[in-house]
Design a protein that fits this description.
Mean pLDDT: 85
Oligomer: single chain
Strand order of the largest sheet: 1-2-4-3
Helix content: 55-70%
Order of helices and strands: HEEHEE
Strand content: 15-25%
Structural class: alpha+beta
Radius of gyration: 53 Å
Shape: rod-shaped
Distance between the termini: 136 Å
Number of strands: 4
Length: 182
Amino acid sequence: MIKINLLSRKERRKSRGVKQELLLSAVLLLIVAVGLGFLWSWQNRKVEKLTLEQTQKQQQLDQLKKVVAEVEQFKKDKALYEQKIDVIAQLEKQQGGPVHLLDELSLNITDNLWFNNLSLNGDRLTISGSAFANISIVDFVNNLKNSPYFAGVNLQESKLAGNQGARVYVYTLNSSVTVPSQ
């Protein structure tokens, strides 16, 4: 079989060149497509990795926020408990004061003298009472002045109160109270 090529040599070369160029273009296009596919896959893995890291960081942040909230609650509770402890310590410190005060009053009371009313407001003590003799009131005031628990003892009033034939003196005195350290 005889083949007759009616194309000239120049045109044959041109057709071979076009085929080669098409083949080369196809190969280059395939290489570019594979390269772009690889690049897309690499970028996709990178995005997934960063998304996973972001999720983990968010979980850590949420856990730390819970810890911070617990710490803040702990600080509030600690401040509340410290305040309660201070109140208890202050009450324990003041606990013996009234007992020592009444003990000191009972040690310094004179014969024929009694109390009708004792009032302690802060560190001010007001005593109202009665006595059969004015000298008993004076001795009681002097005893209180010599006591370390009382300062600024002031007899405000001492008057005779008629009580169906019995002579009774009614008195009122004020004093500052200081409880010495134990």
